[in-house]
Amino acid sequence: MTTTNILIIALFAAITVFVFFLLKISKKLAELGAKSPNEQALSLINQNMINVQERLDKATESLNNRLDNAAKIVMGVQKELSTVQEIGRGIKEFQEMLNSPKLRGGIGEHILNDSLAQVFSREHYAVQYQFRDGQTVDAVIKTDKGIIPIDSKFPMENFRRMLSAEDAATRTAERKEALRAVKKHIDDIGKKYILPAEGTVDFAVMYVPSENIYYEVMMADEEIMEYARGRKVLLVSPNSFFHFLRVIMMGLERVKLQAEAQRIWELLKGIQQESVKFGETLALAGKHVTNAKNAMDASAAEYMKLSSRIDQVKLLK
Questions:
Q1: Model confidence, pTM
Q2: CA–CA separation, 121 vs 216, rounded Å?
Q3: What is the dihedral of CA 84, 87, 92, 97, to 10 degrees?
Q4: Domain boundaries, the chain
Q5: Which segments of the chain does DSSP mark as H helices, in order?
Q6: 85 three-state secondary structure
Q7: Lower CB count within 10 Å: N or C terminus of the chain?
Q8: Helix (H/G/I), strand (E/B), else coil: 146
């Protein structure tokens, strides 16, 4: 309801009230004209006019207050509508930007890189990894079993057309086209990035950068996961990808722990060997000490014998 409409309604209400009071006064005048003298009639008319004026003043004041409040509310609503329109324009511009497949791919790669950085240290993954044949995959995870290739590109445009279809027939046709595009992408990932000769594991990951689209794929074709598994490609959404990364991280930690345990074992083994050598050296030193003691005891006995003979020679004098 606009401000003009509100004013019209308010004026109509004021006129209605005024007419009501005029009719009431006319009725009073008619009654007085039949029963009372002119002076009494004029006095009553004046009194009624004063009452009418007071009521009209109050009604006018109340109406003005209501109109002021209505104007404030309308201004507030207009301001909010302006904000909503501005947000709507921003969303529309963002959607238009996302119409560019290259930009959408860049956003998907950024989300992928951010997810990897949250879980792994830099030495455990790489982005824009290039193979010897020139093919470049969006990211790889480095494990002791080999590198895991991850591709974040996805035929999003096909699914956007499917979701925006206005009738069931068009939607069905677009769904078939979208699934055909997904299967082709799965085939491409399996052929391009699963390269054991270059150190990859025997599977690759296809990252679907939207939970909604991921579940649309699952609901559109229940056999799509089996199809991907047959090509050794794992489909993941942002949520399932995070859990996948945690599993890989636990594996890396286990390998690291095993390596640390092996290193500690080697250190303990070295300490044990040094301990044996030290024991042998200590035993030899003990043997030498024992031999030295025996030699000292023998030397002391010989000295006592020699001293006794010297004493005997002294007595001969």
A1: 0.52
A2: 33
A3: 180
A4: 3-96, 104-252
A5: 3-35, 38-98, 101-119, 156-163, 168-193, 211-220, 224-230, 238-316
A6: helix
A7: C
A8: strand
Selected residue with higher pLDDT from 244 and 104: 244
pLDDT of residue 97: 41
Residue type, 267: L
Two structure tokens written together for 39 = 């002076």
Segment 261-287, tens digit of pLDDT: 566 567 656 766 776 676 677 777 777
Query: Nearest 5°: phi and psi at 209?
Result: -80, 15
Top-confidence residue, 194 or 216: 194
Do residues 136 and 105 make contact, with C-beta atoms less than 8 angstroms apart?
no
Measured between alpha carbons, how far is 292 from 285 in angstroms, rounded to an integer?
10
Both tokens of 194, joined, read: 């699963």
142 phi, psi to nearest 5 deg: -95, 120
> What's the whole-number mean pLDDT along residues 65-72?
73
Work out the pLDDT band at 93, boundaries 50, 70, 90.
very low
150 - beta bridge partners?
139, 205
Output the six-digit token pair for 200.
């990859």
d(CA 59, CA 49): 15
Paired with 236 in beta bridges are 207
CATH no. for 104-252: 3.40.1350
